[in-house]
Specification:
Keywords: Membrane, Transmembrane, Transmembrane helix. The protein is an all-alpha fold and about 130 residues long. It contains eight helices and no strands. It has one domain. Helix 1 packs antiparallel against helix 4 and helix 6 packs antiparallel against helix 7.
């Protein structure tokens, strides 16, 4: 199970790096000019905080896998992480008009959201 927790950490690391690409890949230099300065700031700040959370979560999974598996706090983190990915999967379909599922990137990230939902929950379910 510790290996699966490390895989969870790699999953978070991939999403941290993916979010680091948003400025270039989503053309934020030009696209964010279309919204108010307040919304520009909020969008970028939220993305920076998500990047931090993903890097931090990756660190926890890789260096504290035993604690995540065998403590109540660790189990709560695993459940919370699974719920995060379940919610993100649901949001993907809720905003399907804005994020067309036919686009290959959207298909891939949706699959990764579902994988995250499952891999964070498996260690918890095997312990209880």
């Amino acid at each position: 199970m510790r290996t699966l927790i490390v895989i969870c950490g790699i999953h978070s690391l991939i999403f941290a790096l993916f979010h680091c690409l948003f400025w270039n890949k989503l053309n934020w230099k030009n696209e964010l000019k279309k919204i108010t300065p307040n919304n520009q700031a909020v969008m970028q700040i939220l993305n920076l905080r998500v990047i931090y959370i993903f890097f931090f979560h990756s660190f926890l999974c890789i260096y504290f896998s035993t604690e995540l598996l065998y403590t109540r706090l660790g189990n709560a983190i695993l459940i919370g992480s699974s719920l995060f990915w379940i919610g993100r999967t649901i949001e993907q379909f809720f905003f399907k008009q804005l994020l067309p599922f036919k686009h290959p990137v959207n298909i891939i990230v949706t699959i990764l959201f579902i994988i995250g939902s499952v891999i964070y929950l498996i260690p918890f379910t095997n312990l209880n």
